[in-house]
Amino acid sequence: MKKKALAFAAMACSVAMLLSACGGSNNASTTADGGANIIYAYNSEPQNPLIPSNTNETGGGKPGDLLFSRLVSFDKDGNASNEVAESITPNDDATQYTIKLKSGWKFTDGTPVTAESFTKAWSYAANAKNAQKASSFFSTIKGYDDLQKDGLKGDEQLSGLKVVDDSTFTVDLNQSDSMFPVKVGYLAFAPLPESFYKDPKAFGEAPVGNGPYKFKSWDHNKQIELVKNTDYKGNEDVKNDGVTFKVYTDDTAAYRDIQSNNGALDVMESVPASFTKTFKSDKKVQPYSEAGSVIQTFTIPSTLEHFKNDEEGQLRREAISMAIDRDQIIDKVLNGNATAATDFTSPKTPGYSDSLTGSDNLKFNASKAKELWAKADAISKYTGTLTFSYNADGGAKPIYDAVVNQLKKNLGIDAATNPIPTFQEFRDAVTNRQMTGAFRTGWQPDYPSAENYLWQLYSTAAADGKGSNDGDYKNSAFDDLCLQAAAAKDTDSANKLYQQAQEILLKDLPAIPLYYSNASGVASLSVKSGFGMDWQNLPTYTEMSKK
């Protein structure tokens, strides 16, 4: 996502955060908290209001994850544990699940978390009338197709969800899905209180959740304040009084605020390009850098003339991929803080392999690239300029300057960068299908499975604005393999099928994998304990303390 998915993340500089500093002027907010144990964290302005099922980038995903507890939660290594759920029990072929809730859970408005808090929220997310960005995550639940039809009111419910009593509901699926008990840990599966449906727009500006923190305020393009939820009874042991997400549009300014230890900013999950050589030995910060789970890519829309999913388009995509020297970019631009991509997941993902059929398409080979481009030109001559769009506030400039220069040199084509000022504007252009060339993409996993990197990004169900398939790639053979994997009886069998699905992607290249970002970040010296980064390459917010 989110994010981030959080969905998105940006470079060694981390993707997702694309903010910019408010600078030293933020000091007033530090003194105003009266010495409270508040963690000031780096963020971008969320693309949308803070509604769980309409959040698929990290600007909204980070606060969302802290505001809403789901049926399961993940520890910092990605291990799942029941949280709101007492149990999630499958039938023999994993086509139906019975979910029982723990007693006593409440939203921060005092209303109870019930079975209907989940079933209504999931149905709202799945209903096409509501145009939620995470709609495709619910595509395997029975009744989803009925909620994609025209003429809906928006309150129709998924037929596969049945409330048994206040603390029990059942989920009927279209096919076996052994990953379902893990998938429900994603933000889009959060429960919602009844107040949401009365005014979703107002709710998105001041959300009511059930997580370790509760919402306090949102000063757009400046900050989002969360405070500790003293009624929270879940798996997290919150060590601070709150987290304030500060919006920065310049990651260098953010880093300097952390260096200054002036209270303006305490933690960021990225390192600006200009500091990647020095941050590990910088005595003014607490550094962190380890292998991570975020993949950085760029996407070429499947509808783009000369780059469609046909013979000419595949040749051009392969040529572009082979004309990029990933190791040189990692060495010269990222100062070694990444690993060249060999697949579409990450080295921390179950089932990862660096030797799949087609992985050679991700290796630098300038002569082969030129040969493939010439074959494509023999089908239909290309004389245009291939543009590469990215958000200018997230540190992506040196990456895409390098990509464009390499394509000019190694492939002999006309290429140019197209920086878009803010992450929000950039994502809006992607969402509205306004991109007329390649554009930066990346993925921060929502749950630890190859399925999250593959089905959610490249399936037909996630295309056309129904999910995170921003290039609208469609291949029925890929879809079928992913569905077979979801129905597999064990993880090893599932991962083998996901690898076969990846081999289709490595041929079609709906996106071009560049590298896996290290989980790299810094904290201020004011943070006394708990600074680390989790399986999503995000800071361990709940564990951090200044006392």
Key terms:
peptide transmembrane transporter activity, SBP_5_dom, Peptide/Ni-bd, Dipeptide-binding Protein, domain 1, 547 residues, alpha+beta, 17 strands, ABC transporter substrate-binding protein, 7-stranded mixed beta sheet
Strand element count: 17
Return the CATH architecture of the largest domain.
Answer: Roll
Number of domain units: 2
Tell me what portion of residues adopts beta-strand conformation. 15-25%
CATH C-level of the largest domain:
Alpha Beta
CATH fold topology of the largest domain: Dipeptide-binding Protein, domain 3
CATH 4th-level superfamily of the largest domain: Dipeptide-binding Protein, Domain 3
Instruction: Report the span from N to C terminus.
Output: 31 Å
Rg: 22 Å
Shape verdict: globular
- Provide the residue-averaged pLDDT: 91
What's the main sheet like? 7 strands, mixed
Structural class: alpha+beta
Poorly predicted sequence stretches spanning 5 or more consecutive residues = 1-33
Estimate the helix proportion, in percent.
25-40%
Number of helices: 15
Organism: Bifidobacterium olomucense
Protein name: ABC transporter substrate-binding protein
Keywords: Signal
GO biological process, one term: peptide transport
